[in-house]
């Protein structure tokens, strides 16, 4: 199940939440396929001004996208292509909605979970 947690400047996010949720969901579906649509879980976290910094200076042009994926994705023969597509698609979705000036400061991190460490509703997700 793809789980996304996205931290972005509150001033850029406010009012664009529905559009960003749609764009991020479509990015995942474009890579994984239509079967993944209902499994995409997104949490948007607006960061107040002054709480994003780069090089010791406050900025409002950074975004952090953390995508929780099953560890098996990294064992596939096409892992390099899949992960590259995810990174590009999520960055493109973010910048399409919130502005191209965020591209250089958008970090996409893929965090792997082994199957025995993922639970939904208190039960092991298989």
UniProtKB/TrEMBL annotation:
It holds the Pfam family Tautomerase. Residues 2-60 form the 4-oxalocrotonate tautomerase-like domain. It comes from the Bacteria. InterPro entries: 4-OT-like_dom (IPR004370), Tautomerase/MIF_sf (IPR014347). Keywords: Isomerase. The keyword DNA-binding does not apply. This is 4-oxalocrotonate tautomerase-like domain-containing protein.
